[in-house]
Amino acid sequence: KTSIPDHLHTPETTTKSIQFIPTHNHLRFNNDIHPQTMGTAMGTRMAPQHANPSTAELEETPPNTRQTKPPSHHRYTDDIPTTWTEGEKAPKELHNSPNAHHPSTRPKTDHSTEKVNPLDTTASTNNGHTHTSTHKKPTDRCSYLHNSSFHPSHTKKSIIHSQATRYHRICSDPDDRDKHLK
After folding, report:
1. Beta strands 129-134; 32-35: pairing state
2. Angstrom distance (rounded) from CA 133 to CA 171
């Protein structure tokens, strides 16, 4: 059943559910099952709901309260693409501030003067022109539905179609797009 009956839908049950989910996750490692003792399992429906308040709290600290503010700073759940024109010291300070927020917070930061990788894309400039492509994180497992799964055929076909559409929309260079489509 995917919904909670009205008589059980109270603030107390919602709070208990939110507290239950991150404390009852399990993970598989080397074919052994272990309880997850810290954080939320990524990929669950509750992961963004747990990540958003923490990330939003970090928004209250730098760069919003700094004297030197970045010209571009946006947050998309857990991706925060930021650009700086003030040298390398300010972004390094910004990167250290979440680490001081909570001992388990270890955000990954890519510093580059050539490209940025927000939201699984890569944006770069060359001779004053912006180029875009898709970006795969090192943790990407390329896990798609296997063709022999029991999902309806239209679901399996839609994965191919949606990925091809994604490459067509994101890749600014046709040769790069064709490389991803192979």
Report:
1. unpaired
2. 4
Question: Can you tell me the distance from the alpha carbon of 127 to that of 165, in angstroms, rounded to the nearest whole number?
Answer: 27
Measured in residues, the chain has a length of 182
**Which residues are CB-contacts of 39 (< 8 A; sequence separation ≥ 6)?**
22, 50, 104
Q: Any bridge partners for residue 82, and if so which?
A: 73
**CB-based contact 120:142 (threshold 8 Å):** no
Query: Averaging pLDDT over each range in 79-93, 139-153, 166-180, which range is the top one?
Result: 166-180
The DSSP symbol for 76 reads B
C-beta separation of 120 from 137 below 8 A? yes
- Angle at the Cα of 156 from the Cα atoms of 182 and 77, rounded to 5 degrees: 80
Q: Which residue has the higher pLDDT, 13 or 21?
A: 13
Helix ranges (H only) for the chain are: 11-23, 47-59, 89-101, 153-170, 174-181
Q: For residues 58 and 97, give the distance between their C-alpha atoms in angstroms, rounded to a whole number.
A: 8
| Rounded-to-integer distance, Cα 133 and Cα 169, Å | 9
The Cβ of residue 82 has, within 10 Å, a number of other Cβ atoms equal to 19
Note the pLDDT tens digit of each residue in 132-172: 999 887 777 777 788 888 889 898 889 889 999 999 999 99
- Determine the residue type at 109: T
